[in-house]
Predict the structure.
Amino acid sequence: MALALRFIHAEQALAEIASGQIDAVVDPNGGGPYLLRPAQEQLRWAGAFLEAQVESSLDGVLVVDLHGRKILQNRRLIEIWKIPEEIASSGDDALQIAYVTSQTRAPTEFTARIAHLYAHPDAVSRDEITLIDGTILDRYSAPVRDWSGAVHYGRIWTFRDVTLEREREKRLTESLVQEQALVREAQAGNRAKSEFLAVMCHEIRTPMNGILGFAGLLAAAPSLPEDCRDFVQTITSSGEALLRILDDILEFSRLEAGSLKVEFAQFSPRQILHDIQTLLTPHAQSKQLQFDIVVAEAVPETCWSDAGRLRQILLNLAGNAVKFTEAGSVILGVRTVVPAGLATQVEFYVRDTGPGISSAGLEHIFQPFAQMDSSISRRYGGTGLGLSISQDLVELLGGKLSVHSEIGIGSEFSVVLDASVPPGTSAPEPPPSGQTLDGSFALRHPLRLLLVEDDRVNRKLMNTILVHLGYTPLIACDGREAVEMFRRERPDCVLLDLQMPKMGGYEASLEMRALEAGESPGHRAFLAALTANILPEDRQRCFDSGMDEHLAKPFSRARLAEILEAASERRKAAARAAASPEIDRI
């Protein structure tokens, strides 16, 4: 390639190099020649690429020198700020700044921020500004330096329209606030419903305790005619059915409100199955059904779960099986299963030879109030809540409830649980042995008893039962009278109603404990709540008030006997402790 050699001044050379008129340079001292054309082409390409990149940006871009003079701005900046074309193309920086400032809602803060950044060349800033038309801009500014970072060329500003984004965030925030308000309203409604049901439960259980209690005493009367005995049994079964319906509704409400808790502990799966068999065998025999329990050899002696809730689930499933099966058998069993890749699990199941459930019925069988048809409710009774409650309880226990059924063959419900006992857990205590509940009971478990009950019927019932067990209890009709009697008589055991006039059971318990605290240690009466308040929080409040036990109405005589036995054991232990110093001195 031929080159024309010219000698020119250095300042002229720089100008011609920039304009592309010189292709190469030679150093008079012997260096070169240096070809400039490829570098110039590369520089022009890079400039075009940068310009295209800036113009295609979704952000408005403005680059200024160290003195704030505009070097470049893209079309998006003009669009975002709605700068008139005559101002944008005028080259008058002051005019454009004045226009832009006039478009902001806070012009003083706007200009102050700009002045601050020009006064601090190294500062990086990001904030939001709002225009008078409501547009919200995300503003970012940073210094422009050379590759080494030592030389400042000016400052770059970018502006992004975030109006729609902020509006979405605002709507989302408002929606969340509204949703939280609705949740609070729903929770308040659930609490109000639960409280109403708890009150209704108390009001129904209190008279029902009298009905079932006296029915039980009447049934035990040796001179009762056989036909009357059948009438009494009908009264008892009807009352118990009403209580089951009431408990189902209350349990469902607590599950809805999320207030139902589970308490895991070690238990015997075999004992649970035997307990349920004992409860349901009379009903099964009345229908001439075979009721068997089956325990696989691999099932461990003890498992880990909430035994009370599991018993409730299995009792509901097995009770349904007995209720709906007209001929054949019901099997209540437990076996082990080993899912792929998982630890061994325990599966409880109930299998019957009942009518079976259609595929359509299986689709909604665990839904609340679901029954196959209205004739089932008329024929068998119930609320349709049992299976829904059972499924929720199984999920609370971390398990799974499933069903398999065929029309004309029968059904099998199964509950699969990971019931492995945690290491280091102590074995459960064996259940108390049955005792004769007659006048000899008080001889075996002597106690000075104080009965505190404001309801006349329940007071009469409790007194009658205690007399049958061989006791002659002291009787108080309200909490204040009970505290005074406790002060004078110092009974070993107090059966204490909770909701009473003048002074309730909680307050009376606290005062009794205060009286004991002022005396020498050793005498601590056994206080047992006698109440229709059956919620766990009610039970806990009893313990927090100093009580030792909670006896829910209606109660069985066997449960009352357990409490009296525990009270007697405490009395005997206190007597032994009091006698031990005398023995040591001898």
User: Anything to note?
Assistant: The CA atoms of residues 573 and 579 lie 10 Å apart. The first strand starts at residue 24 and ends at 25. The first helix runs from residue 10 to 19. The mean pLDDT is 82.
